[in-house]
């Protein structure tokens, strides 16, 4: 089974369409003994209105109800995935009455038992991937945990590649560098000295970055770039603490 699973995970690398990805993930999870899967990827294209992509093999009744009733905002599993890194066992999920109503409604549609993995991508993406069964299977979830640890990152990488808005090529290195120095409180003149280029060139790169990020000004661009993982630290000048 392990060799077959590895081959299936490798096939994720060549999939290009969301529907095809959904079908392939469904094949993988059913082969592992689960009935359904559900995956939500939140892509920070905008701080106030991020783009959410949902891939799942759940019953149509649940898919329609979840969307129509706006359950994403009060889903306790999604809430837990935003504050922890470890797997979320459904039988241990707690929340407000409104949140727990989501779990009750899910159970009515056959989504009774599950484990969910928080997702965190390289450019600020986050979300959750759930593996679900209709009936309780004592010991099954603990036994399958090591295997799921191999499945989750492969599925996440494929989902980000496919679901991110097309044409989102990210910032050029020099654009990110200019924004970094803006975030450090530097003026255009100071940035030009630091990077060794004319002020008009710095302004050009900042304007380009601002347009790409759909921002109103350079400061808004910094906020969006940080939320989207476009600004990350470098390791050439660091303080290393050995314990």
What kind of sheet is the major sheet?
A: 5 strands, antiparallel
Tell me the helix content: 40-55%
Strand order of the largest sheet: 2-1-5-4-3
> Strand-residue fraction?
5-15%
Q: Kindly report the average pLDDT value.
A: 91
Return residue spans where pLDDT drops below 50 for at least 5 consecutive residues: none
Q: Given the C-alpha coordinates, what overall shape results?
A: elongated
Gyration radius over CA: 21 Å
Series of secondary-structure elements, N-terminal to C-terminal: HHEEHHEHEEHHHHH
Terminal residue distance: 40 Å
Pfam families: Autoind_bind, GerE
Protein name: Transcriptional regulator
GO molecular function, one term: DNA binding
Organism: Aeromonas caviae
Blueprint (SSEs and pairs):
Elements: H1 2-11, H2 18-31, E1 36-43, E2 51-56, H3 60-68, H4 76-81, E3 88-89, H5 97-108, E4 113-120, E5 126-133, H6 140-163, H7 173-183, H8 188-195, H9 199-212, H10 218-227
Antiparallel strand pairs: 1-2, 1-5, 3-4, 4-5
Helix pairs in contact: 7-9, 7-10, 8-9, 9-10
Keywords: DNA-binding, Transcription, Transcription regulation
Protein name: Transcriptional regulator
GO molecular function: DNA binding
Summary tags:
243 residues; 10 helices; 5 strands
Please tell me about this protein's structure.
The structure is a single chain. The radius of gyration is 21 Å and the shape is elongated. It has ten helices and five strands; from the N terminus they run ααββααβαββααααα. Helix 8 (188-195) packs across helix 9 (199-212) and helix 9 (199-212) packs across helix 10. With 243 residues, the chain is an alpha+beta fold. The longest helix has 24 residues, at 140-163. It has helices at 2-11, 18-31, 60-68, 76-81, 97-108, 140-163, 173-183, 188-195, 199-212, 218-227, and strands spanning 36-43, 51-56, 88-89, 113-120, 126-133. Strands 2-1-5-4-3 form a five-stranded antiparallel β-sheet.
């Amino acid at each position: 089974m392990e060799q077959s699973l590895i081959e299936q995970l490798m096939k994720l690398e060549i999939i290009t369409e969301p529907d095809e990805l959904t079908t392939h993930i469904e094949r993988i999870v059913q082969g592992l003994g689960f009935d359904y899967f559900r995956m939500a990827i939140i892509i920070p294209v905008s701080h106030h209105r991020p783009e959410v992509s949902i891939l799942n093999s759940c019953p149509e009744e649940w898919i329609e109800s979840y969307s129509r009733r706006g359950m994403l905002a009060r889903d306790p599993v999604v809430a837990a995935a935003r504050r922890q890194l470890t797997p979320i066992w459904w039988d241990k999920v707690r929340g407000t009455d409104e949140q727990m109503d989501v779990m009750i409604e899910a159970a009515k549609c056959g989504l009774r038992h599950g484990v969910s993995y928080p997702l965190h991508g390289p450019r600020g993406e986050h979300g959750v991937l759930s593996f679900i069964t209709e009936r309780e299977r004592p010991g099954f979830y603990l036994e399958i945990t090591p295997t799921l640890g191999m499945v989750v990152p492969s599925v996440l990488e494929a989902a980000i590649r496919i679901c991110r808005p097309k044409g989102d090529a990210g910032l050029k290195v020099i654009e990110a560098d200019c924004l970094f120095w803006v975030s450090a409180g530097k003026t255009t003149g100071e940035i030009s000295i630091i990077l060794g280029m004319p002020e008009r060139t710095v302004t050009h790169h900042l304007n380009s970055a601002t347009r790409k990020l759909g921002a109103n000004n350079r400061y808004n661009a910094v906020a969006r770039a940080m939320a989207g993982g476009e600004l990350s630290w470098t390791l050439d000048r660091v303080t290393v603490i050995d314990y």
